[in-house]
Structure to design on (157 residues):
């Protein structure tokens, strides 16, 4: 079987376009990024190395991040960051417990353990990480001048 190679530029463009917020006058700016995660062993110690992805193959691990910054003069509350997962990736298992997810294109949200997906026969089944279409974070408060980052790990399909 021939390995499927993916150039990452197309998938990354989806991520950068994906973070959304309601008001166009919102003082919060967003910047998306993605890194290829590789575990390397040096002198008997393992460590994770992040690099810019050029070509990825099934099984590669990626770290998607969205940095946010409030450039306004007042705090912003209940700020929502929503990222669609590129179709070429699936949410990594360690990301499923703590992240709000959607399996229906962003219409409904919840923790993966509580979300149901279509079984393809008119019914529902327990959703799995491969069903996730979007991830979301609700940031309670971003102070004036404040910033931070939200992230999720994914695996190339």
């Amino acid at each position: 079987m021939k390995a499927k190679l993916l150039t990452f530029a197309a998938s990354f463009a989806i991520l950068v376009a994906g973070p959304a917020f309601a008001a166009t006058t919102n003082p919060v700016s967003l910047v998306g990024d993605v890194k290829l995660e590789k575990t390397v062993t040096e002198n008997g110690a393992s460590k994770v190395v992040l690099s810019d992805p050029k070509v990825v193959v099934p099984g590669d691990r990626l770290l998607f991040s969205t940095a946010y910054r409030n450039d306004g003069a007042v705090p912003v509350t209940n700020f929502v960051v929503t990222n669609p997962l590129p179709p070429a990736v699936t949410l990594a298992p360690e990301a499923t417990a703590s992240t709000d997810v959607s399996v229906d294109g962003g219409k409904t949200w919840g923790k993966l353990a509580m979300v149901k997906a279509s079984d393809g026969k008119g019914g529902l089944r327990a959703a799995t990480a491969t069903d996730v279409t979007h991830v979301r974070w609700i940031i309670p408060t971003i102070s004036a001048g404040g910033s931070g980052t939200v992230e999720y790990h994914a695996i190339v399909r």
Q: What stands out?
A: Confidence is low (pLDDT under 50) at residues 1-23. The first strand starts at residue 6 and ends at 7. The two ends are 15 Å apart (CA to CA). The CA atoms of residues 84 and 134 lie 4 Å apart.
